[in-house]
Amino acid sequence: MDAQKEALRRIISTLASKNEELQNFLEAVDHTLTGLQEESCKVMSDLEAELEKLNSALEEKGAELRYIIKEEKQRKEAELQVETLFFNELFLSGTLYFLVYYLVLHIYLLIVFKVIFSTLVTMAPAFRLTTRPAVSDNMSQFTVDFSAERAGLQRLHFLPVPRAPQIDASSCVVRDNTITVTWRPPGEADSGGDSSSRPIERYDLEYRKTDRDSTLRVAGEACWEKVCDIIEPQVTISGKRSEFDSRFIAIRVRARNKAAAGEFSEPIAIETTAYNFSFDASTAHAELKVQGDTVTWEPQGVKGHDPRLRGKENKSSSRSATPSPNKTAASRGGRDRFAGESYTVLGDEEMTNGCHYWELRPLADWKSFSVGVAYRGSLGRFDQLGKGTGSWCLHASQWLQSSLAAKHNNRAKTLDWPLPHRIGIYCDYDNGDLLFIDVDHLRLVHAFKTKFSQPLVPAFTVWCGGITIATGLQVPSFMGNFLTTNRSLSSLSP
């Protein structure tokens, strides 16, 4: 009967999932239809505007050419009218007859009296009269031939739009809270590209966070973020922590030339490989206060306690006011809460494979804390980190004196190392590596080598003070150096 109920539950769950996918698909179709109608109206309006501009340009050019021809015609007419007027006046006044008589007389004097030739030369320009019009009737320089332009108008078509690029998923790199996306430009993959298309000027990339490897947007998921005016076929999305607090990032890209923007490429979902978790407040000891990514120790029933009292001159009073972690009793909380001397809280995301990284910073008033990993099922309500076979941790203390130790299976290894102010925790579940890094100085504090056999969760112990964590981080590239050079370090694991 139970098996039938479970099978029925799985069928109902599958149907519900398919129904949700169908609803999302229908919403996407409706959205596309609305966008198609809006885009059609827009391009139609743009076409009318461009035709109006083309017609205006033709009218302006025609008016300009007409004006040039008219101006030349008027200039020539004016010159011809001046010549006509001059010769009409010349004939009407009889001046022409006088000039002819004067010329004949000078020729006679030249023959009879042997007058020097220079006199005739001096006077001759006065009688040079041209009988050719000053301007011609030729206007052929204004002949036009718009056959090429007519052919160009007949070839008018829609602007060449670049094809969608193709994202090269194998070349995309996820590292150090950045994603470097690489794509192949349009036409590079196929040799039959259109040689008449305009060169690619820019690329636009869009991305959004998603918890599914499907690129179909689900209601409630983030909208597309834009990166515009990319010149090269590659871009790096710089990593704000908030950019990588999801399991996947969906990415698409399109090409633009001076004419228009093309279609977006088919989106791909890239796994961020970031490990994002929060404190599981339901497991926190009753005297631990969880607020976001911070945990502080707030003891109950201790009068006059001030966890920030740390001065050496007040050491004696501090000891009397601040209870020892080995002697303070805690009230019982819920069934899953840690209790007694185990001031512990766990993370809410399990690790079952792959590599994970997060960081811890102690608050200014801290006295003692531990950080590491544990099998959730192996820790009892009163168990402390590092005391059994199912937990591994780094323990730091400023209570009475500074100390740093690596703990596992009730064994502790004292570390001769200054207390780090920023600790990076790296866990490679498959290879059994657990490393603690002094991030500020990029030095390995300690490395455990073991073989994990159950799901792990981050684990923390806080006594007197507090800690804050940074999650949603990708494995830093500097971890490669520690993994290659420090695998031979001894560990406390059997």
Which characteristics define this entry?
alpha+beta; 6 helices; disordered C terminus; 494 residues; 7-stranded antiparallel sheet
Topology:
Layout: H1 2-93, H2 95-113, H3 117-123, H4 147-154, E1 166-167, E2 173-175, E3 178-184, E4 202-210, E5 225-230, E6 234-237, E7 248-256, E8 268-271, E9 279-280, E10 288-291, E11 294-297, H5 315-321, E12 344-347, E13 355-362, E14 368-375, E15 391-397, E16 403-408, E17 411-414, E18 423-428, E19 433-438, E20 443-449, E21 456-463, E22 466-470, H6 479-485
Antiparallel strand pairs: 1-3, 2-3, 3-6, 4-5, 4-7, 7-8, 9-12, 10-11, 11-22, 12-21, 13-18, 13-22, 14-15, 14-21, 15-16, 16-17, 18-19, 19-20
Structural class of the helix and strand makeup? alpha+beta
Biggest sheet strand order reads 9-12-21-14-15-16-17
What is the β-strand count?
A: 22
Order of helices and strands: HHHHEEEEEEEEEEEHEEEEEEEEEEEH
In round numbers, the mean pLDDT is 80
Organism: Astatotilapia calliptera (Eastern happy)
InterPro entries: B30.2/SPRY, B30.2/SPRY_sf, Butyrophylin_SPRY, ConA-like_dom_sf, E3_ligase_FN3/SPRY, FN3_dom, FN3_sf, Ig-like_fold
Pfam families: SPRY
Keywords: Coiled coil, Membrane, Transmembrane, Transmembrane helix
Explain what this protein looks like in three dimensions.
The protein is α+β, with helices and mostly antiparallel strands and 494 residues long. It is 28% helix and 25% strand. It contains six helices and 22 strands. The strands form four sheets. A seven-stranded antiparallel beta sheet has the order 9-12-21-14-15-16-17, with no helix packed on it. A hairpin with a 4-residue loop joins strand 19 and strand 20. The longest helix has 92 residues.
